[in-house]
Write a structure and sequence with these properties.
Blueprint: E1 2-6, E2 14-17, E3 22-26, E4 34-37, E5 44-47, E6 55-58, E7 62-65, E8 73-76, E9 82-86, E10 95-98, E11 105-111, E12 119-125, E13 130-136, E14 144-148, E15 153-158, E16 168-173, E17 177-181, E18 184-187, E19 196-203, E20 209-215, E21 218-222, E22 230-231, E23 240-247, E24 250-263, E25 266-274, E26 282-288, E27 299-300, H1 304-308, E28 318-321, E29 329-332, E30 337-340, E31 347-349, E32 352-353, E33 361-362, E34 370-376, E35 379-387, E36 392-395, E37 403-404, E38 416-422, E39 430-435, E40 456-461, E41 469-470, E42 479-485, E43 496-501, E44 504-508, E45 516-517, E46 529-534, E47 540-544, E48 560-564, E49 572-574, E50 583-588, E51 596-600, E52 613-617, E53 625-628, E54 634-639, E55 647-651, E56 656-659, E57 667-668, E58 677-682, E59 689-694, E60 699-703
């Protein structure tokens, strides 16, 4: 999580962004949060200095809310100028194509403290090495270019004590610092660092600027507007620094995030604080980076530290301090948001809370990646979420509270639980597939890493998923991503199949104790076996993920579907739809095994991505027709177990879909708008409700036919030509 930004009007209102595309707002000082989606990762937030209800966010475009964050409208580019939205990349990242587009991409922004119609931005095109300073005097309706800049900037501040007629601004980029006074630009002498990775500035009541900069993992302070710089040295030495924040109106106080601080061989991490403009520093958050170490007594975390150790989240990736109160600040890291209200004397987690004696629940700050939502067939109140980075989580009270459920899983498998399979006849028996390699099948996980580096396999539980034993004799270390049980096999000798990413298909005929590789007929080298599906007659399908990301098709890196009618002893290829080479999910009609629904991932070709969507075959995969193409990056398709006419689909385009006529027509499910969706699971307790797992937005739960309203806050603004 990044960019903790506190309202200058009401310190209880806070904004935070996650690199998994979610944004979050709290109006009660972090006690609760509401997620909102702007269809991309937010790069900064800015509060209007005069109107408490107005705030800005820069994602793929510049957005503004005028009602305290409830709804957002696109400021730049203006909706009427949109020609198309390019989203053909693997993550369906959106690029707004507008004409005209005089600014390019906005990278930094500030608002005039005396006139909030006046907006200052740095914008340009990084690929073309073009950057400039722009000003708008009508809240972004029109813009005027004032000066070229050496490169794009990340930070921009207005000196509130400067004359309105000739404002003084500070602009910070990765390699430069400049001061702008009226129409003049003055280059400041920066600190002795090659690259500036973070910066913060504040102004005294006399208008004196104090600047803090992180560069080359060191921190520097200037109290003379950049004329000279003092390097920050913490007691002990060897520290690496990566985030800094000061208070706009109280700049003598600042906080810096550190790690690898060496004291007598112990490596410490946390946050240091200065109250004298960098002359001296005090360690206000100090934890031993050893996993086995006890947490600091003044750091009151929720479940992450007790479960995984004090260094799981690392030292803060980002810091934010209130303009009006230098004692109030937030630190965000890989999964946590921590708050201090007493100048760092104590830090309290605001990402989770305990609803009772045991287990944890969300505060709304959900940033986890989840693959499946699972129910114990013997007790529907016992529920599981298979997740990445934090492994398997279990609820014993119908989802009201959650606890880690990976006891016994080998440590080097514990990062991700991809799937689990219950034995419907043997109470307590369940199998899970786990790996240290997360986020599969996304290319970032295999483009540079050999499958020989993948660790993982199968675990078995006989107490309903509370504890686990390794159960993968005969199976090489692998990123095991799916497991399937043959329900017709005998109890105690269940036949199981595992998709092993980079290995192929493994089979067990003895309840998962031993495993044999079954790849005969699969042509791919080191096949990226992703999921296995069984029809009611016993035929198996295995999905082989694509191992290219350049938009090509017709090569040996194409994904594939294979079918076996002899229990995985042999496999034969199933034709892919024309133009498609990335199968990601498959569902078979329970009454008609010839009727297949294929979820396909688009190639990086065209504007929207080609070859993706949901395809239907009525002849067991001999021929296909496209039945859903409004989304092209479809993760999975689900058949409702109550009614096979009802289908669900979700993917990476800010939507989930429902069909009530076996895929002939589809409607968007109201309310769900997270950018990166995964899979829909019908709620067994309510035919009108579903769960949706996501890539970085937790698990969503809601109605399939919610109130008639705008489906989300961003899509209506992003319809080209409207």
């Amino acid at each position: 999580m990044f960019h903790p930004t506190i309202s200058p009007h009401d310190s209880r209102t806070v904004l935070i962004a996650c690199d998994m595309t979610g944004s979050y707002i709290s109006h009660d000082g972090g006690a609760s949060w509401r997620m909102f989606s702007l269809r991309g990762v937010v790069r900064f937030f800015v509060f209007d200095p005069l109107d408490a209800k107005v705030m800005y966010a820069q994602a793929d475009g510049l957005w503004r809310s005028q009602d305290g964050g409830e709804t957002w409208s696109l400021v730049y580019p203006q909706p009427a100028t949109l020609k198309e939205i390019k989203m053909s990349s693997d993550h369906s990242d959106e690029d707004l194509i507008a004409e005209p587009n005089p600014l390019g991409n906005i990278t930094a922004m500030a608002i005039d403290p005396a006139d909030s119609k006046v907006l200052y931005v740095v914008a340009g095109d990084k690929k073309k090495n073009v950057a400039a300073f722009f000003i708008s005097r009508n809240q972004g309706a029109t813009w005027t270019k004032e000066q070229d800049l050496p490169e794009l900037a990340e930070k921009l501040w207005v000196n509130p004590q400067s004359s309105k007629a000739s404002r003084t601004l500070l602009i910070a980029g990765s390699h430069f610092l400049v001061e702008k006074k009226g129409a003049e630009l003055k280059k400041l002498s920066g600190p002795a660092a090659k690259v500036f990775t973070d910066s913060s500035a504040g102004f005294t009541v006399e208008g004196k600027a104090i600047l803090y900069v992180i560069g080359d993992e060191s921190a520097f302070v200037s109290d003379d507007e950049g004329a000279s710089w003092k390097k920050v040295n913490l007691a002990g030495g060897g520290e690496k620094l990566r985030a800094v924040a000061t208070s706009l109106h109280n700049p003598a106080t600042a906080y810096v995030s550190y790690r690898q601080l060496d004291e007598a061989g112990v490596k410490w991490m946390g946050v240091a604080k200065t109250t004298d403009a960098g002359q001296t520093w005090k360690l206000v958050w100090k934890e031993d980076s050893n996993l086995a170490a006890k947490p600091a007594t003044n750091v009151h975390d929720a479940w992450i530290t007790p479960r995984f150790g004090s260094d799981w989240g690392e030292n803060p990736l980002a810091l934010g301090v209130a303009d009006q109160d230098a004692n109030l600040g937030y630190g965000t890291d890989l999964g946590r948001t921590m708050r201090t209200t007493d100048g760092g004397a104590t830090w309290v987690a605001v990402y989770s809370q305990k609803p009772g004696e045991s287990g944890w629940t969300t505060t709304g700050l959900d940033v986890t990646t989840s693959y499946g939502y699972h129910f114990d067939p013997f007790d529907l109140r016992r529920q599981f979420i298979t997740t990445t980075d934090i492994g398997l989580f279990r609820s014993e009270d119908g989802g009201k509270s959650w606890m880690s459920s990976t006891q016994g899983v080998p440590k080097d498998w514990m990062n991700t639980t991809y799937w689990m399979e219950f034995d419907p006849k043997v109470k307590g028996r369940v199998w899970s597939v786990n790996s240290w390699t997360h986020d599969l099948p996304r290319p970032k996980m295999w483009r540079t890493q050999s499958i020989s580096k993948y660790h993982g396999g199968v675990c078995r539980s006989d107490d309903g998923g509370k504890t686990w034993l390794k159960s993968n004799e005969g199976m090489e270390q692998t990123a095991a991503t799916h497991i399937l049980m043959d329900p017709t096999s005998p109890e105690g000798a269940r036949v199981l199949y595992v998709a092993a990413f980079g290995r192929g298909v493994y089979k067990s005929v003895d309840d998962g104790h031993t495993w044999t590789l079954k790849n005969k007929g699969i042509k791919q080298h080191e096949p990226f076996a992703w999921r296995i599906i069984r029809d009611r007659k016993g035929a198996l399908y295995v999905l082989i993920s694509r191992r290219s990301e350049d938009g090509s098709i017709g090569t040996d890196k194409d994904g594939a579907v294979y079918k076996s009618t002899d229990g995985a002893e042999t496999w034969s290829p199933v034709a892919m739809p024309a133009g498609s080479n990335a199968p990601n999910g498959l569902a078979v009609d329970p009454a008609n095994p010839d009727r297949l629904y294929l979820a396909a991932w688009a190639r990086a070709a065209g504007v929207h991505g080609d070859g993706g969507g949901v395809y239907l075959s009525e002849d067991a995969g001999k021929t296909w027709k496209l039945v859903l193409d409004r989304d092209r990056h479809v993760y999975d398709v689900t058949i409702d177990p109550r009614d096979a006419k009802i289908l669900y689909a979700a993917g990476f385009e800010s939507s989930a879909w429902r069909s009530t006529d076996r895929g002939a027509t589809w409607t968007r499910i109201p309310g769900f708008n997270f950018k990166w969706g995964h899979r829909v699971t019908p709620d067994p307790a309510d035919a009108k409700k579903i769960y949706i797992t996501t890539f970085g937005g937790g698990v969503w739960h809601g109605s399939v036919d919610g109130e008639d309203r705008v489906v989300d806050i961003a899509t209506p603004e992003m319809r080209p030509g409207k």
